[in-house]
């Protein structure tokens, strides 16, 4: 059997893509596309299929293959280094040269030269070795840091073969979620498109992954059936969340599997109405409804207990008020003049009765910037009124502000000048936390928000 | 490397070939720009000429290639030139230590320029007697030339054009610049422009369908030269078959015409045809299908692969954008709408159920955390695009303000979603404002 049909049996439901892939990568005919794009949504088997195919080809001695996880590299330079290092090891060049060669490459400008050096060394090491094609699989190449410009990077790598006749055996395969994200349309690279698996196909694939162990004293066929039923039930329950992403399913399935298999294991057999999949599902309904399987345990609803001093809490509340209230209402909300304040409730309710249903609450939007003077004025107003004592305008207050700023609870929007009048600040704490603080210091924050 | 057959470019080929041949034969310095859109064969044209010259004048000239894609400024380009000269030196002399590359770019420039002025090679000759060639012509091929016009002084281009112009008997330099930018000549600085020999070869995409078909045929046909009799006979039948396919009504013709009237992209067509030919039955010359090429907006493809909850969230974000006539949306806003929609849906369902009997349905609600995760996935898929914006000089992505407050652009509109999921009932319902 040739490499293609072997891979086809290993990668189910992907023969169409494999056929197309084999059009562009045919080492047995001496034809290799110097670069190609593979696109498709997450969890459509792109990397898996490619890996299987290339590994098979490598096993059959037709090509050499190297996979690079670009997501872990973050920068272009790191990817280039990974490529070079992998290549050096693949060709069996001594490790002494490795450091020297990799060090020589400080970006795209020197990459080609280093590649040529490697080729040169390899040629002098093994002069009569057959030059096999070398395939680099660049997985998720679009997920570099935003300023790394992955499109320019892919563009450059697609031109490696044009730089020197020595480099014509390299092929680069880019695996991306969407081909437009790398912006190399005009190069018209060969494109293989993957589509999502159907739900039935996913179930089939997952069922094959369940490994039978004889610690559970049931027959293999029965076990398979049980596993299939389990997958059916769980996937159907959560299908609105999973979509077709196997990556989301597997952790949930592994988490819930013990719940279903333990009754079977303890009883030693499957009895309908006692421990089959549907009965366990019925019994554990509450568990399944509570998102136990989906939610991470790390992400708890509870806000970490606030052991901040009262004054700090007030500062944060003031910062929140400054960020989410328009300055034009400051007089109404915080004035010490009775007349202005007396009207507050009236105007407040008047505004509220308007077209409230259509209006977006300011709380939902991004915080507005404010100057430090405004924050201090609001802080004085609410602190004095609520605590019945004057807030000392001392160095301690300022250092408190500085601490909050280093904690990124309030953020400065400009580098440099800290206390200048023009410097803008923003509150970086969300509503639920502020609300909790307000409750703790017994401050009715809703009265001070205009919406 | 082997020659690529190109249709309709014989004139341009001869121009380039003659120019380079003159450089090698008569030490005539020249500079020339080849301008044309991607995929018109600029690089192949130059490569063909160089290959042919390489066969004819073996080891009688050097080729140095730099590319704006790799060496994106003058400094790295000059270093690359030095390194390539080193390579040539390595091949022709036994001095492994000789190097043009110096630590600083300026020194490298000096050492390279000294060669191009002809003095250094003569020195070499004094030391190295078996190396007879006094004047080795050098051909520079500069890909993506427009990258080097960004620099104010354009030092690299200035120097190269200058040596090319002042080439004499002792040394000859030819400079070939390839670029896709049509107005690149206007971008040249005036001193650079005056040293440039003003020779421009303009390649364009073909205007006539028949010419385009010729190019396709040139791509597909097999050359009969050097084949044994039976293979040649088969190749002839194949060529005939292909010609009939391209000229007459057929699937292949349809594809060619479609490509001609949309992108005129020969490379794209080549990729499709490759898949077609590979699948073809070679004895009967039949069968084979074309891979579908989806040139739709990629966001629609992504939409089709979303899970139900993600799609609902997209719709809610779209609703809020329309309702409040905003251009950006954050998670809080989208979630509020989502909450409202699911609640009203449950209520309608319950009231319907109540009229039938006294059943109350408690639909499973989804927590905010789960939906936030869906939101994050939408960002990852590129359906929600982060605006790149500067606030007082700081990139605003630096500022977070909590993940649920961050504003994003939605890459699709509600209309598009509704149109795409015409068949799905609930989507239509949710998309209605």
TrEMBL record, chain A:
Lineage of the species this protein comes from: Eukaryota, Fungi, Dikarya, Ascomycota, Saccharomycotina
Record-linked Pfam families: AAA_16, ORC5_C, ORC5_lid
Subcellular location as annotated: Nucleus
Organism (species): Ogataea philodendri
A single cellular component GO annotation: nuclear origin of replication recognition complex
Record has Zinc as a keyword: no
Limits of the Origin recognition complex subunit 5 C-terminal domain: 308-449
Gene Ontology biological process terms, A to Z: DNA replication initiation
Boundaries of every ORC5 lid domain copy: 228-289
Protein name in the entry: Orc1-like AAA ATPase domain-containing protein
Keywords: ATP-binding, DNA replication, Nucleotide-binding, Nucleus
Molecular-function annotations in GO: DNA replication origin binding
Domain Orc1-like AAA ATPase: 13-166
Protein family (similarity comment): Belongs to the ORC5 family.
Automatic annotation (TrEMBL), chain B:
Annotated compartments: Nucleus
Keyword rRNA processing: no
Domain Origin recognition complex subunit 4 C-terminal: 219-419
Designated name of the protein: Origin recognition complex subunit 4
High-level lineage: Eukaryota, Fungi, Dikarya, Ascomycota, Saccharomycotina
Main localization, broad class: nucleus
Family annotation (CDD domains): AAA
Species in which this protein is naturally found: Ogataea philodendri
All copies of domain Orc1-like AAA ATPase, residue ranges: 20-166
Gene Ontology BP terms: DNA replication initiation
Cellular component annotations (GO), alphabetically ordered: nuclear origin of replication recognition complex
GO molecular function: ATP binding; DNA replication origin binding
Entry keywords, A to Z: DNA replication, DNA-binding, Nucleus
Family, similarity comment: Belongs to the ORC4 family.
């Amino acid at each position: 059997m040739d490499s293609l049909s072997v891979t086809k049996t290993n990668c189910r439901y992907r023969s169409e893509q494999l056929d197309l892939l084999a059009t562009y990568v045919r080492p047995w005919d001496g034809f290799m596309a110097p670069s190609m794009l593979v696109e498709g949504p997450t969890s459509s088997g792109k990397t898996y299929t490619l890996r299987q195919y290339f590994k098979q080809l490598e096993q059959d001695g037709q090509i050499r293959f190297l996979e690079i996880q670009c997501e872990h590299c973050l920068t272009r330079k790191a990817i280039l280094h990974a490529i070079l290092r992998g290549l050096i090891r693949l060709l069996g060049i001594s490790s002494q040269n490795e450091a020297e060669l990799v060090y020589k490459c400080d970006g795209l400008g020197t990459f080609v030269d280093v590649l040529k050096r490697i080729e040169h060394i390899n040629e002098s090491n093994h002069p009569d070795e057959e030059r096999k094609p070398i395939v680099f699989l660049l997985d998720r190449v679009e997920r570099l840091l935003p300023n790394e410009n992955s499109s320019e990077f892919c563009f450059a790598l697609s031109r490696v073969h044009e730089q020197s006749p020595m480099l014509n055996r390299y092929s680069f395969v880019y695996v991306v979620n969407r081909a437009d994200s790398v912006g190399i349309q005009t190069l018209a690279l060969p494109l293989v498109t993957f589509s999502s698996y159907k739900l039935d196909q996913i179930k089939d694939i997952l069922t094959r992954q369940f490994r039978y162990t004889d610690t559970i004293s049931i027959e293999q066929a029965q076990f398979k059936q049980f596993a299939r039923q389990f997958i059916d039930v769980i996937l159907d329950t959560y299908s609105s969340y999973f979509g077709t992403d196997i990556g989301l399913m597997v952790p949930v399935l592994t988490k819930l599997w013990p719940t279903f298999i333990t009754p079977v294991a303890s009883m030693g057999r499957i009895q309908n109405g006692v421990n089959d999949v549907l009965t366990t599902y019925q019994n554990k309904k509450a568990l399944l409804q509570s998102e136990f399987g989906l939610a991470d345990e790390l992400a708890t609803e509870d806000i970490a207990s606030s052991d901040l001093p009262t004054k700090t809490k007030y500062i944060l509340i003031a910062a929140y008020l400054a960020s989410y209230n328009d300055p034009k209402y400051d007089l109404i909300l915080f004035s010490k003049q009775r007349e202005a304040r007396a009207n507050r409730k009236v105007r407040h309710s008047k505004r509220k009765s308007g077209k409230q249903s259509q209006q977006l609450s300011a709380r939902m939007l991004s915080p507005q910037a404010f100057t430090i003077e405004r924050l201090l004025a609001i802080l004085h107003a609410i602190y004095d009124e609520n605590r019945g004592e004057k807030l000392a305008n001392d160095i301690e207050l300022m250092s408190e502000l500085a601490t909050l700023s280093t904690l990124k609870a309030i953020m400065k929007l400009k580098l440099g000048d800290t206390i200048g009048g023009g410097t803008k600040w923003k509150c970086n704490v969300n509503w639920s936390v502020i609300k909790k603080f307000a409750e703790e210091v017994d401050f009715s924050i809703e009265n001070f928000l205009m919406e | 490397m082997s020659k690529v057959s190109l249709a309709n470019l014989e004139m341009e080929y001869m121009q380039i070939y003659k120019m380079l041949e003159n450089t090698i034969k008569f030490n005539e310095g020249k500079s020339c720009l080849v301008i044309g859109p991607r995929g018109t064969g600029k690089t192949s044209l130059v490569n063909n000429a160089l290959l042919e010259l390489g066969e004819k004048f073996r080891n009688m000239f050097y080729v140095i290639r730099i590319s704006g894609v790799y060496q994106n400024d003058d400094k790295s380009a000059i270093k690359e030139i030095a390194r390539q000269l080193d390579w040539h030196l390595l091949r022709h002399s036994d001095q492994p230590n000789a190097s043009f590359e110096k630590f600083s770019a300026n020194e490298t420039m000096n050492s390279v320029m000294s060669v191009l002025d002809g003095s250094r090679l003569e020195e070499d000759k004094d030391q190295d007697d078996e190396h007879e060639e006094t004047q080795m012509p050098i051909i520079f091929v500069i890909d993506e030339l427009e990258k080097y016009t960004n620099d104010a002084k354009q030092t690299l281009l200035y120097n190269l054009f200058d040596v090319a112009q002042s080439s004499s008997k002792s040394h000859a330099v030819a400079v070939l610049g390839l670029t896709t930018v049509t107005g690149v000549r206007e971008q040249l600085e005036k001193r650079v422009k005056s040293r440039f020999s003003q020779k421009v070869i303009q390649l364009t995409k073909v205007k006539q369908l028949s010419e385009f078909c010729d190019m396709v045929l040139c791509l597909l046909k097999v050359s009969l030269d050097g084949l044994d009799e039976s293979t040649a006979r088969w190749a002839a039948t194949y060529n005939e078959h292909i010609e009939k396919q391209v000229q007459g009504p057929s699937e292949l013709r349809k594809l060619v015409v479609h490509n001609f009237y949309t992108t005129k992209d020969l490379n794209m067509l080549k990729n499709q045809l490759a898949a077609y030919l590979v699948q073809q039955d070679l004895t009967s010359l039949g069968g084979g299908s074309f891979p579908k090429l989806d040139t739709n907006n990629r966001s629609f493809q992504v939409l089709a692969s979303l899970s139900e909850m993600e799609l609902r969230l997209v719709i809610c974000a779209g609703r809020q954008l329309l309702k409040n006539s905003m251009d950006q949306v954050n998670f809080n806003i989208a979630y509020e709408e989502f909450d409202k929609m699911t609640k009203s849906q449950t209520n309608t369902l319950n009231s319907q159920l109540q009229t039938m009997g006294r059943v109350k349905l408690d639909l499973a609600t989804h927590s905010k955390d789960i939906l936030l995760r869906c939101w994050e996935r939408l960002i990852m898929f590129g359906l929600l695009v982060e605006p790149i914006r500067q606030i007082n000089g700081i990139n605003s992505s630096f500022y977070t303000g909590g993940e649920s407050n961050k504003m994003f652009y939605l890459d699709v509109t509600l209309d598009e979603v509704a149109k795409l999921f015409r068949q799905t009932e609930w989507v239509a319902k949710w998309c209605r404002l």
